Amino acid sequence: MFTFAIVLYKIKMKDDNIRQDSLKAWVLASRPKTLTSAAVPVMIGTALAFKDSAEYVEGAFNWIPALLSLLFAFIMQIDANFINDFYDFAKGTDNAETRLGPRRACAQGWVKLDSMKHAIALTTCIACVIGLPLIFYGGMEMLLIGLLCVVFCFLYTTHLSYLGLGDLLVIVFFGIVPVCICYYIQLHTCTWEVFAASVACGIVIDGLLIVNNYRDRDTDKEAGKNTLIVKIGARNGRLLYFFTGIAAILIGAIFWANGHILAFALPVIYLVFHLITYLKIVKINRGKALNMCLGETARNIFIYGICVTLGILLS
């Protein structure tokens, strides 16, 4: 997993002269670098379950639902990216000429709108097929969780992100839900340590959305997309990014309280990288140059995931 993430972080696919609906176009549309954000909560939830399974019945941990959860997270992330690509272009939020962020498939004409519609339907169905067997491990409640993931995957881009609720959804669906569910599937319970870890994970991953919305604050305001950054302003937006890292470390103190000192100490490595990226955001302030900070934030998220996971397993 670590090698896979490093490859995703370093990959630099040239996005010029791309044939419409080609394999390269679809790879770019899937935004492979974002898959690390899908993997991190699964890693943390699975590590916590693996550690605690020894306190229940020997051999209680099962790798099959863990792998299914990871695949489900990957496909749902790609599905969300396709939905975001399609609807932001359809609503006029993504404009090929004014866009500051990485170029998007529909806006650039790399993927036809009809093709993207079909891709959204396909990835949604694949995610459901992958997630359905989790019912056998976690019970019928997994069906409700899966449906909520699919519904809010659509609602995020189509409505809720325009109301400034995107950050809350990231904390819930990239933190609380995946971390707690990955643990629940294995042991059919949850603990305060797991819940705290899930909140910290969601806060860290929200840093990616904060940088994205900070960069796009002017164009989002013009398009009527009232993100949290548009509402609170640039200065408070920078402070919000700063405190995501601090908050994650402070919440992680629950690991220390439960005797898992490494799970608290190792993420300090992440905090160092986070603060360096924060200083760059302050210096750059606006424009396409912030895309570098976006990439660094994705890297920092994975560093956090590795540090917490290793800390849990080695404690």
Strand tally: 0
Give me the strand/helix succession: HHHHHHHHHHHHHHHHH
What is the percentage of strand-forming residues?
Answer: under 5%
Gyration radius from CA atoms, angstroms: 19 Å
Mean pLDDT: 89
Structural class: mainly alpha
Parts with pLDDT < 50 across at least 5 consecutive residues: 1-13
* N-end to C-end Cα span: 21 Å
Instruction: Outline the biggest β-sheet.
Output: none
Shape category: globular
- Estimate the helix proportion, in percent: over 70%
> In DSSP terms, counting alpha (H) and pi (I) runs of 4 or more, how many helices?
17
Topology:
Blueprint: H1 2-10, H2 23-30, H3 35-53, H4 63-90, H5 105-108, H6 113-131, H7 135-138, H8 141-158, H9 166-187, H10 192-215, H11 217-222, H12 228-232, H13 234-251, H14 253-257, H15 261-265, H16 267-284, H17 290-314
Helix pairs in contact: 1-17, 3-4, 3-9, 3-10, 3-17, 4-6, 4-8, 4-9, 8-9, 9-10, 10-13, 10-17, 13-16, 16-17
Concise account of the structure shown:
Helix content is 75%, strand content 0%. It is built from 17 helices and no strands.
Task: Explain the overall architecture.
The protein is mostly helical. It has 17 helices and no strands. It is globular, with a radius of gyration of 19 Å.
